[in-house]
Please model this.
Amino acid sequence: MAEQLKIGVLGASGYTGADLVRLALRHPNMEIVALTANSHAGKPMRAVFKHFAHVDLPDLVTIDEADWGALDAVFCGLPHGTTHTITREIFASHPHVKIIDMSADFRLRDAAIYRSWYGVEHSATDIQPEAVYGLTEVYREKIRNARLIACPGCYPTAVLLALVPLAKAGLIDVSDIVIDAKSGVSGAGRGLKENTLFCESGEGLSPYAVGKHRHMPEIEQEIGVAAGVADLRINFTPHLIPMSRGELCTSYLRLAAGKTAADLRHQLIETYANEPFVTIADEDVLPQTQMVRGSNYVVVNVIPDRIPGRAIVISTLDNLVKGSAGQAVQNFNVAFGLDETTGIEQLPLFP
Amino acid sequence: MAEQLKIGVLGASGYTGADLVRLALRHPNMEIVALTANSHAGKPMRAVFKHFAHVDLPDLVTIDEADWGALDAVFCGLPHGTTHTITREIFASHPHVKIIDMSADFRLRDAAIYRSWYGVEHSATDIQPEAVYGLTEVYREKIRNARLIACPGCYPTAVLLALVPLAKAGLIDVSDIVIDAKSGVSGAGRGLKENTLFCESGEGLSPYAVGKHRHMPEIEQEIGVAAGVADLRINFTPHLIPMSRGELCTSYLRLAAGKTAADLRHQLIETYANEPFVTIADEDVLPQTQMVRGSNYVVVNVIPDRIPGRAIVISTLDNLVKGSAGQAVQNFNVAFGLDETTGIEQLPLFP
Amino acid sequence: MAEQLKIGVLGASGYTGADLVRLALRHPNMEIVALTANSHAGKPMRAVFKHFAHVDLPDLVTIDEADWGALDAVFCGLPHGTTHTITREIFASHPHVKIIDMSADFRLRDAAIYRSWYGVEHSATDIQPEAVYGLTEVYREKIRNARLIACPGCYPTAVLLALVPLAKAGLIDVSDIVIDAKSGVSGAGRGLKENTLFCESGEGLSPYAVGKHRHMPEIEQEIGVAAGVADLRINFTPHLIPMSRGELCTSYLRLAAGKTAADLRHQLIETYANEPFVTIADEDVLPQTQMVRGSNYVVVNVIPDRIPGRAIVISTLDNLVKGSAGQAVQNFNVAFGLDETTGIEQLPLFP
Amino acid sequence: MAEQLKIGVLGASGYTGADLVRLALRHPNMEIVALTANSHAGKPMRAVFKHFAHVDLPDLVTIDEADWGALDAVFCGLPHGTTHTITREIFASHPHVKIIDMSADFRLRDAAIYRSWYGVEHSATDIQPEAVYGLTEVYREKIRNARLIACPGCYPTAVLLALVPLAKAGLIDVSDIVIDAKSGVSGAGRGLKENTLFCESGEGLSPYAVGKHRHMPEIEQEIGVAAGVADLRINFTPHLIPMSRGELCTSYLRLAAGKTAADLRHQLIETYANEPFVTIADEDVLPQTQMVRGSNYVVVNVIPDRIPGRAIVISTLDNLVKGSAGQAVQNFNVAFGLDETTGIEQLPLFP
Model:
């Protein structure tokens, strides 16, 4: 019989936490033993998310009530800035617990950049060097032994899986990258905000956080690493789309001298030949969010630009799965030596 | 190692067929060996449904090209009226093959009623007596040995799971049933119709087929059987809702003398105490399609009416899963002696 | 040149208030001189509603800052329970000002019923007898001279325009009325609530307030008046639909002895022969919200039920226009002796 | 009393034609005397578009049945390639009739470019020089006396109103323009296509026609004219968004040496200071389709890019109004010497 690993979910009342619970409930090696949500502590999970009416789950507790020592892994779905302390504490006192953080708090290696984008001082800089950036396909080997895994943001996952291999191989000019990004509304979370009301975001399309989105420095950091370039600056412009799930990034790229769109596509096919979750679409197929909804898959393709010397790369994923909870489970599988696809093999739900 | 059963899907280019394929691909005891779609024969499945880009599947073939003898089970997702001949032929020549029909063709026991609602003569009346109505929770024992399983329509599944136990127990007046039904657009299929274009059905709500919907006689037949009443007539009024998946039926009922809404709820709790897929919602929880999207679950509840002597029963399901492909897999599991939940344990996708 | 009437809008930061402003800006006889919104006081209207970026409007002020004496009419878009005091004060001190209340506060004639449904004591019962129920087509003559017009709720407008003529003419059994109601999300207002977030109400369908909706007593009151029946009880069951605007009510009726669906339809055609905003649909046309979006029109039709002795009446309107701001303008036109269609002749926006 | 001008609409059964009819019905100087739709000839308009149930309109006729001599103006909403012959014939035989073409057929000045993008030979090249490109704000003076007005495509209208003044003033490098465009589904028309079914385009986002969209040469032509550059090539990448109406273009621009985003914004403010339909949004306001739905307004803003030497320009409009029927009416008003805003003053419908 397969090993049962005990897990806890910090921040189980958000969309990311809930999707982690959904996956964990059907994961053959996970047993959910703690769910925290300070504002809902004491309630059954199904009172907070009605779609869990069919299953048994532990009631929600406060962070203080959870017994970290009893766990093998902690998934953290809290907002940024709230996890430094608790993560540091668990990290220090429970060396056997693996922490898989879906928040933004340990993604940026440079504390100054963290401060300037998130507006708070990072209070756990001492354990930052222990954090592995959880872009599974890129950092798989480091994830195997990591105790603290900082899962990437949803947009960075979509962008980086497409662009990192191209930057690494020197196929593109990383100083001229324009990324027009589009996301469904769940990316904004379950908090009550006027702009995510049905009547405000339905039947309409809004750019937001133009030039200011916090996923920007993450993308710059990782493309910079891949290309060996410091202080990279990209254009990243997100738009809110009237759908719940799904994200699509259209990246407008300048090719390295002599390179073609076909070279880029070939590079991606080669890089991802044996990857279970990255699909390079057939030659004439444009990626669309409908190809990934509810699944851990990413679809990427390269389209020739009419303008010589340029190419268009399109990548898409489900922001709550591969963009968050699914990738977290994927990293869990890697970190515990399980088959990497365990529990996240669901095919996209279409229509 | 678990038994591998070879299956074919007739009509794999419709939404119902595609959702069957989605479930079959992850079912541990199914191997897909044939997919038919006359109008798309010769194409790979992923050219017809892009969300299958991630997996290998047999190419689509015509019905004539399929080798029925090689199969253990055939799922049929063709439109009504098109399956009589092929079903009869397979039934006659391949006694070991189980046929699980998701079309309407073998649901009605009375050929005259079939003719009057579907407008065509039934040409396989000789095998109709062999057909078991595939409402799993009601006909489970007969399904175990059936060779031809006629899966119910999506609306009838939602209505009958809620009302059959009440009618059987004599708790309601079956001569006064009003069912206001609401469905997402996928219920209308993938055929090109003006009223299912995004611009026509989006941001709007339309009643349709009022007094004429073909799921009506099925509901009348089965409530009639449950109550022991012939020639039952109900009111069934469907509405098209701007969402892709999901169905919700609000049934307005007159109680039998002396009965209360609480009696109805108690009856349902008792009936479904051990059923894996039927959830009676907590006392104050109103069923909503968000509780079942993408899953094989049904949620039902009974709400007291302010008008004495009446009650409101609400039931909801995903029309493509429990309302079609999921229930078909559930029946497959029963018919082949597998654990009934195999391959359809997915939790609802929310948001 | 046409007369210019000075108006104020109380509660201009809600959807109802905003739609009133939209109509008033293009009404040839209205001049907007005051907009109140306590929580947004001091802001320009276009900071609160971006779609007003194209026009000049007075900045928002608090209720206390408004000069009622300078106005000819006040439209009130505040939530129920908040308008008693201010309405009473304006009514008492500014006899020339007409008050057109879009809230629920003066719709119910019986203070005890108000208290039991709204949970607060009515503190302006003395002026309640002055209030005219603003269902224009029914109370037009009284509206001409009214100083306080209590515009009906959105659902009641849709239901009553369809059922009042039938009840008055004795064509239906008013003791057996089941109304299955469906509304777009704007009916819930702009307040921040979890269930009206895009991710919660999108791609899903939810019944709500079953047996408890506050529009129920209004409907009972007015059908009771029309039929001459006291203490009427009806079934009214609302559902939240994933669209922004629009409302459709499906009423399941028992016919008076010997009457037919055709009799009902004939009665409605006759009643509304000269009404500019009530359309009886062609014989085989089912009303749908797409027929009225963004307009002041109501569409009604009667559909025969397969069950003898019953009929189905369907009515639809835009909840923010004919269901609120549009009907308020219509009443303004009547009250000031203008052509009744002035400023609300817009045709539906489709798609 | 105002002059009444007789108009006809060619292709009244499409979304563009229908929106023209909607506006014309409330235009004080238009009388609709002919509506053509070959495939629906003989039907009443309200049988083809149910939202016209409230009004009287001439029945649909074939093109051959229409009496062009009786008209003052013809609006053409036919698909491209179908209007050459009829336009030429009307142009030749009825010199007093003004033709306002909403199709693509007379937008491109170069017949070779037309042929290469539209795949058909242009058969009315002789009257092409008479055609004025109907971008009202740019070509107003020529439109006054034009007999043939070729209204721009929806995307070109959104892009060109934003970029033409910048190109003219030499503020941007026109050789490096990337336009990421997003449109609601109505832009694809009412024809039956699988990808515009509700279930296919709902809850999802798809790029389409990447590098191949037919609005590209129009944009290149007009920016080229503005900048005085021949053979311009731009990147134009459209995406299909799950909403019915609305279009938003995000243009990524390289600034001319020494110029800033503020310079661009200032130029636009100056250019459009007295234009009734072009709104430059407040400094921190990002344009969104919700600001224009159902109206003839365009909203534009310039946002500084973090990357030095670059800027982002965002423009949005309703594709069926300012992007088609509304601009056609605006041109009609100009051509007949009416107040330019007549009949198209409607404010956006929000929510």
User: Anything to note?
Assistant: The radius of gyration of chain C is 20 Å. The CA atoms of residues 12 and 18 of chain C lie 6 Å apart.
